């Protein structure tokens, strides 16, 4: 039997070369600085090899601190400034983020060290693949959709064990700019079943890239179409005042009988459709709006609005 994935299992975006900045369109640093950043990046990747050996034997808290420190140092080496807005729950959660670039992985690790769910190809990337395996990445073979239930089971087990897991439910990258480029059919619901089964909250993460001098959105870090990883890395190393913002949304708390498709739609709305995922609607508006959404306080979590999703 063929293992080719059904088209619905292989999401696609409307992005192409036109979504990327043309040469000379974005402000760039001098070539000498680009070379310096490349050397620093290679040094951090070399350090990552050392982490591959050390991380598995470290206690959980130290492992997270080492991963976060490495990711933030790598950002500085590339000349990228990181801005994290909002706070994560103090306990395990399924982190659901939009997907623009390979850089999203570093952004998530720098903001909220967690186990990642990534396509199997990432595990074969030079050096990065080794580090991905060291932090416990759960790989998905998108050419074998029959293996998906097993992946969901592994995510559920990680959540039940108290680990946070980060997923990119769009299933593919896009430029993060034009709405017509957004991947279809939207957030895939499979991984949200893991949060329901484990009784874990879902935390929406919005990742955005901007030019620091003007604050305007940029597609320079995007990794779309048929371009190579190296070309995307070169654009990041050349970018001037590139900033990445990781905006942490209000947690969604699915009930035991919650529907994963409804949960996926709510999480997608929190990431894409709300002006700021950190600013949630008032209790009255939440109670009267569409869908089975309601508010309930959770004193054990950091203060802030939270959404509860029932079946």
From TrEMBL:
It comes from the Bacteria. Keywords: Acyltransferase, Lipid biosynthesis, Lipid metabolism, Membrane, Transferase, Transmembrane, Transmembrane helix. Residues 1-23, 277-311 are annotated as: Disordered. GO terms for biological process: phosphatidic acid biosynthetic process. CDD domains: LPLAT_AGPAT-like (cd07989). The chain crosses the membrane at residues 38-58. It comes from Micromonospora radicis. This is 1-acyl-sn-glycerol-3-phosphate acyltransferase. InterPro entries: Plipid/glycerol_acylTrfase (IPR002123). Pathway: Lipid metabolism. One of its GO terms (molecular function) is 1-acylglycerol-3-phosphate O-acyltransferase activity. Residues 93-210 form the Phospholipid/glycerol acyltransferase domain.
């Amino acid at each position: 039997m063929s293992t080719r994935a059904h088209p619905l299992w292989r999401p696609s975006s409307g992005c192409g070369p036109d979504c990327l900045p043309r040469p000379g369109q974005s402000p760039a640093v001098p070539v000498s600085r680009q070379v310096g950043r490349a050397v620093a990046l290679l040094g951090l990747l070399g350090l990552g090899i050392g982490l591959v050996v050390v991380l598995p034997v470290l206690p959980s808290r130290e492992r997270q601190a080492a991963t976060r420190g490495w990711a933030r140092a790598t950002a500085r080496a590339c000349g990228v400034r990181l801005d994290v807005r909002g706070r994560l729950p103090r306990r395990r959660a399924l982190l659901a983020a939009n997907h623009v670039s390979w850089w999203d992985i570093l952004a998530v690790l720098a903001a909220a060290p967690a186990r990642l769910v990534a396509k199997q190809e990432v595990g074969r990337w030079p050096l990065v693949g080794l580090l991905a395996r060291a932090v416990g990445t759960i790989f998905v073979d998108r050419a074998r959709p029959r293996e998906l239930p097993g992946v969901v089971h592994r995510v559920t087990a990680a959540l039940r064990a108290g680990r946070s897991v980060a997923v990119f439910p769009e299933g593919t990258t896009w430029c993060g700019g034009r709405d017509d480029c957004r991947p279809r059919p939207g957030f895939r619901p499979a991984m949200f079943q893991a949060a329901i089964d484990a009784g874990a909250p879902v935390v929406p993460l919005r990742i955005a890239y901007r030019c620091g001098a003007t604050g305007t959105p940029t597609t320079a870090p995007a990794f779309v179409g048929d371009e190579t990883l190296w070309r995307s890395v070169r654009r990041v190393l050349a970018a001037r005042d590139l900033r990445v913002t990781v905006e942490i949304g209000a947690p969604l708390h699915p009930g035991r009988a919650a529907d994963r498709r409804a949960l996926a739609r709510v999480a997608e709305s929190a990431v894409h459709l709300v002006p700021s995922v950190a600013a949630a609607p008032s209790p009255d508006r939440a109670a009267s709006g569409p869908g089975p959404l309601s508010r309930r306080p959770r004193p054990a979590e950091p203060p802030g609005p939270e959404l509860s999703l029932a079946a």
